[in-house]
Amino acid sequence: MTRRTGSLVLGALAVLALASPAGAQSTPFVFFGGGASLPMGDYKEYAKTGWLANAGIGTTIGSKGLWIAADLFYGSNSHSDIDGDKTNLKIGLATLGYTFKPGAKVTPYLSGSVGLLNHGYKSDTFPEAEGSESMMAFGGGAGLIFKMGAKSSFWVEARYLTASKDGSSTAFVPVLVGISIDLK
Questions:
Q1: Which CATH entry fits the domain spanning 3-182: 3.30.70.1020, 2.40.160.20, 3.30.300.180, 1.10.1240.10?
Q2: Which residue, 49, 145, 172, 175, is most buried by CB atoms nearer than 10 A?
């Protein structure tokens, strides 16, 4: 993803995440998390379990459990076939979610996302083969939110994310834990 493309995506996602219908009760929030990146499909043939960091902004839409967010991810997976090779993932997503019991101490939720994924290949052995490729990404997931206080929550989630272009695909399951802080 080029710097210009990345800036445009980040700007668009920020506007999306902060937009809410006029007059609707909303609560903006920020979140930070991290965890494991479990390769799936073709990606699993050469990538090992890696790590993934996540941060974003969002807002609830009304009081019925609907929310939107802009998610950013950065992570890395070492390769199983050649020592020193790895894939770095940069991801920007717009996410729509639904919380089943807003305000409860433990709250399950579902989410769906669409955005861009940049798959960057790095090699100690074959530096001439290094490169990156950006592609449309989408996926969905489920999680649990645990209220810790009036403005903070702890969450755990698993998603399935995939992106493909010209016959190659990058699919993985992020298993993440994190915190969310209400800004209102």
A1: 2.40.160.20
A2: 172
